[in-house]
Amino acid sequence: MPERIHLPDDRYFGPDPKQKEFAQCLYGLVANFPLVCPHGHVDPRMFVEEPRQGTDPNHSFGSPADLFIIPDHYVFRMLYSQGVPLEKLGVPRRDGGEVERDHRKIWQIFAENFYLFRGTPTGMWLTHELYSVLGIEEKLTGESAQRIYDQIEATLATPEFSPRALFERFDIEVMSTTDAATDSLEHHRAIRASGWKRRIVPCFRPDAVVNLDASNWRKNIAALSAVSGIEVSSYRAFIQALENRRAFFKSTGATATDHAAQTAYTEELTDGEAEAIFQRALGGAATAEDARRFTGHMLMEMARMSIEDGLVMQLHVGSFRNHNPLIYERFGPDKGADIPIQSEFTRSLRPLLIKYGNDSRLTLILFDLDEATYSRELAPLAGHYPAVKLGPPWWFFDSLNGMLRYLEQVTETAGLYNTTGFNDDTRAFPSIPARHDLWRRVAANWIAGLVVRGIVDMGDAEEMMRDIAYRLVKKVYKL
What's the whole-model pTM score? Predict the structure, then answer.
């Protein structure tokens, strides 16, 4: 008999019988709540219209390899760490070089190495996705690989597995994508014009034009000029163009912005200093120090704009991007070679917080990849400044243990109500229910522990559970 997937109803709960009983009760309260997805990277093109035979492949999930492996850096970084070349996994090369085109062969490699994901969050998500979304009951192994490939392939071809059908099946109340400042948002506008009742909104991400060291920065500035109708030949015109784009995003349904920086450094430049740096950048003469200072200044400008237009501001800090130059040069960014670095917020963010942190019209959500900052800096900052909220554990720490460490480290100082609930932050659309389910189970287990220890009573615990699973994220992200 083939081995079956093991997915028990009480998974992720602690072994203490009393705590497990409370956890199951709390989880049951929210298990079927709608999903609110305020930050992620799902491509909006797939929801423009229902797929028809022979139409744009962006409206379907493609093969099992397309769905699980080729676009997912969580998957292929693990396989690469074990010596599997990315070419063998079908990951496209920048130079158009040869990669494996046979998706069954790619799937076979994945299946033979699926054991590598035991005990990892990726393994938890994938197992949930295989079983609960795709109806796979047999364990994925080298021996079962092709049977399961056939089953998934047949399932994906059914109308019930179109992107819109799954969106409705997952009961996603609202989903935010992440879109460049220069994006036309044509796909968002097409979704709205189609009359489909589900809600997908954009999120304004200006990194490619704000960070002077971004790839193709001057080309991106030209695109900003074109899409805004403002000739960006000066710093002042640059600010006007960004304000123009923010207003457009807001008119198309956006409620938030997103900013990525290696550090939380902020500094307010004079207009003259900002203009001088901007002109050096236009001339191709900006230095690394120019880029650092300009990004720090623009974070302050983005906070100012958020106070004026009401868009929630997200700041993601702490990733050394493209650590492996071989992978970056051959395959490009976002290929599993981004590594966390130490972070500092107390001094770095102070200029922004001095000017704007006391203004409750600003909502600044902080994310970091350095867990040491949770209790040392982030929780105390969120526990004081009205503008500051803490995003959920992110990226490497979007895991069972990472979530538990986060809840234990931040709530004593910040309180639950200076956090923001959960966001899935994923490109892998079918994995969204698994990610939310993990968060809700971990949260239920943690709150149940508070009940067992007499820290909160069951009535308060139930309210905390509803908040952490659903209400907080809607309130903070204005959804």
Answer: 0.96
